[in-house]
UniProtKB/TrEMBL annotation:
Name by which UniProt lists this protein: Uncharacterized protein
Ranges for region Disordered: 1-22
A Pfam family annotated for this UniProt entry: DUF761
InterPro entries: DUF761_pln
Amino acid sequence: MDHGKHFSGSGSGINKNESKDRKKLLMSRQIVLGNEKEDINKMADAFINNFRKQLKIERENSFKRFQDMIHGGA
């Protein structure tokens, strides 16, 4: 039964073309994963920055309400 493996004289089980193709595939996967990591990091940074902006707005609104309450509101 042939399972798609080619045996060479060196006994490695994979011929040189398959080895080169496998290396290319692995390198392309690493590049894609690297790009995905960058995208995820960018998305995380954007989320954190947006969250900080929202907290700042909430603090400012809360402080304004506090000041209005202290000064009798207007």
